[in-house]
Amino acid sequence: MLVDDPWPAPRASDPVDLTIDLPGSKSLTNRALILAAIADGPSVVRRALRSRDTTLMARALTSLGAEVDTSGDDWHVTPGRFDAGAEVDCGLAGTVMRFVPPVAALSTGTTTFDGDAHMRNRPIGTVLTSLRDLGVTIDDGDRGSLPFAVVGKGSVPGGKVVIDASMSSQFVSALLLAGARYEQGVEVCHDGKPVPSLPHIEMTIAMLRAHGVEVDDAEANRWAVAPGPVGAVDHVIEPDLSNAAPFLALAAVSGGSVVVRRWPEATTQAGDALRDILTSMGCEVTRVPEGLRVRGTGVLHGVDVDLHDVGELTPAVAALCALADSPSHLRGVAHIRAHETDRISALVTELTSLGADVTEREDGLSLNPAPLHGGVFRTYDDHRMAHAAVILGAGVDGVRVENIGTTGKTFPDFAPFWSGLL
C-alpha cells in the first residue's frame, strides 16, 4: 500500500482501548529457518513472520539447496544438498549476513553475499575471520565487509575460535547455529568487553537444544556445540515482543489500555523487558487471559536504565523518555551505533529537531523534560527509528515520518495498521 512520504503520524487524542495481535518474531523465525535447513528431515515453522528480513532468509536458504515453501502462514522446510553455487541478497538483514555464511560453508560451491548499500558498513569481519580459523575459505578482498564469498568444500573442520563479540551477539549465534554440522563441532570463546544482547544468545541455545543439539554454556563467555545431527523440529513462532514496543507505548502516551495477545509466560526475547521498563515509567502492567495488558496512568516518568542486553528497545524507550515529566538516562548501548544506523547519534539528531533536550553519551543518551513540537523525523532506513517516530507522533501534533515503509523489515503494512488503531 502506498503512503505519503513523509507520513503524517496520527495523534492519540483520546485514551485508547485496544487488543491486538502482532506478527511473529523475526529473531525466532530466522533462527528456526536456519536450523530447519540443516536438520535431518522436513519440518514446519508455524506462524512465521512474513517480512523483508525473513523472506530474504528463505530465499538465501533456497538458493543454497533447501526447499522453503512460504506460500502459507506455516512455512514448510525440506533440507537439501548444498552442492551448487548461490547468490545471497542480505538486504538490511543482519541475521542473513551473519547466520547464512556458516551454513554456506557446508556447501560444495561458492556462495556470494551482498546487500543494501548501508550493509557494507555493518560489521561482519569477526564472523569471516572465525570461519577462516575453522577451516573455511573466504574471499572478501581483506575488507571484512560485504561483498564477500564463501568457498564451500562440502564440510568444515570446526574447532575452537576466540572472538571479540562486543559489537554484536549475532557473531556468537552465527557460529553456534551451524556448529553441530561441523566435523569437530565448534567452541566459541569471547574475549573483550561484555557481549551485548545476551538474551539473543540464550534464544539460540534454547532452539539448538530443542533440535537435540548438545550445547555447553556452563562457563561465562564460552559456548560449545558438540558435533552431531540436528533433529527436525516444528516451531511455533511467538509474537515479536520488540515490535510490541510502539503499541504498549501507545497505552502509556494516551493514558489508555493495550492488550497484546499471546504474550508468552516465559521467553528469551529481549522485548519481554518492556514489562519492567514500562512499570518503572508509571504504567500498570498485568497479565490477563489474552496475554499482556499495559495501562497508562496519566503520568509518564523518566528512568535511569541500562539497556545493554536489550539495546533494540532503545529508540522506543528514548521516545517515551522525551515525553516524560522527569530526566532519563539510557546507558550501556554503545553497540547500537553499528545497527541499521548509528542509533544513538540518529536519536539525538531527530529528537532534538522536535525540541527535545537530549545529550549524547558514548554509550547512550540523557534526556530532560522539554516542550516538543511537530516536524519531520528521519528514520535512516531503520525500523526501530520509525517506531520512535510514531510514539512521538501519538503525543505531539504535526510529527511526520520519513520512510515509514522501513517498518516492513519486521512488520508488513505497519503504517495502515497503526493508523487504523487511531
Helix content: 25-40%
Identify the strand order in the major beta sheet. Answer: 2-15-17-16
The assigned structural class equals: alpha/beta
Quickly count the domains. 2
CATH fold name of the largest domain:
UDP-n-acetylglucosamine1-carboxyvinyl-transferase, Chain
What's the total helix number?
Answer: 12
The value of Rg in angstroms is: 21 Å
Please give the CATH architecture of the largest domain: Alpha-beta prism
- The unreliable regions are none
Main sheet: strands, sense, barrel: 4 strands, mixed
- Strand % is 15-25%
Report the span from N to C terminus.
18 Å
CATH level 1 name of the largest domain? Alpha Beta
The CATH superfamily of the largest domain is Enolpyruvate transferase domain
Mean pLDDT score: 96
**Total count of strands:** 23
Global geometry: globular
Annotation keywords:
single chain; 422 residues; alpha/beta; UDP-n-acetylglucosamine1-carboxyvinyl-transferase, Chain; 30% helix; 21% strand; globular
What does this structure look like?
This protein has 422 residues and is an alpha/beta fold. It has 2 domains: 7-23 and 239-421, UDP-n-acetylglucosamine1-carboxyvinyl-transferase, Chain (Alpha-beta prism); 26-236, Alpha-beta prism (UDP-n-acetylglucosamine1-carboxyvinyl-transferase, Chain). Helices cover 30% and strands 21% of the residues. The protein has 12 helices and 23 strands. The chain has helices at 26-37, 52-64, 94-104, 125-133, 170-179, 198-210, 245-254, 274-280, 314-322, 343-353, 383-395, 414-421; strands at 7-8, 17-20, 43-46, 67-69, 75-78, 86-89, 110-114, 137-139, 148-151, 159-163, 186-190, 215-216, 222-225, 235-236, 257-261, 284-288, 291-295, 304-306, 328-331, 357-361, 364-368, 375-377, 399-401. A 4-stranded mixed sheet has the order 2-15-17-16, with helices on one face. Helix 11 links the parallel strand 22 (375-377) and strand 23. Helix 1 (26-37) runs parallel beside helix 2, helix 7 runs parallel beside helix 11 and helix 9 (314-322) packs parallel to helix 11. It is globular and about 60 Å long. The chain starts with 6 loop residues before the first strand and ends with a helix.
